[in-house]
Amino acid sequence: MTNSSASHVKEQIKNRKELNRFIKYWLGGGLYFWLGYAVFAVGYSVFHWGWLPAKILADAIGWTSNYLVQRFWAFSDRISFSEMKHAGRYVFIESIGFVMDYLIIWGLKSIGITPYIGFFLSAGFFTVWSYLWYKYWVFPEKRQVH
Asked: Which end of the chain is more exposed for a tag (fewer CB within 10 A), N or C?
């Protein structure tokens, strides 16, 4: 095998591994979304809570399930430092996302769009946002020592 074909094979393996990681991330995010959506629907439509308390409970449950899936499944091979540092970074970036998410849903609700639709629109944005933050900062690739 030539050097160029060996590097091509390595690149294909790396791309396949990244695609598998993204699929796992997406499935974990789907769990977060649908679990949170169900909790929100029960709080908002069944118990008649305001959208904010229903969303807070939905996010608390969703955050927990999402962290566990991302940390122990999607990004399990990228554990670069202590659990507390990963968890701290996760909480930090999700806190920023939390504020942005609430502003998106509040803004849409204030112009007459139901929070149910806001959930979907916000989730589309955060699918990309979170993946990039998780990949490059929350669960960064282990540094190779040469």
From this structure: C
CA distance 101 to 121: 10
Q: In angstroms, rounded to a whole number, what is the distance separating the alpha carbons of residues 82 and 85? A: 5
- Burial label for 20, CB within 10 Å (0-12, 13-18, 19+), is exposed
List the Cα angle 78/85/138 in 5-degree steps.
50
Q: pLDDT by residue (tens digit) across 61-120? A: 998 999 999 999 999 887 778 889 989 999 999 999 989 999 999 999 999 999 999 989
User: What's the CA gap between 104 and 119, in Å, rounded?
Assistant: 9
Burial class (CB within 10 angstroms; exposed 0-12, middle 13-18, buried 19+) of 84: exposed
**Residues 69, 31: contact at Cβ < 8 Å?**
yes
User: What is the tens place of the pLDDT at every residue in 10-41?
Assistant: 888 888 999 999 999 999 999 989 999 999 99
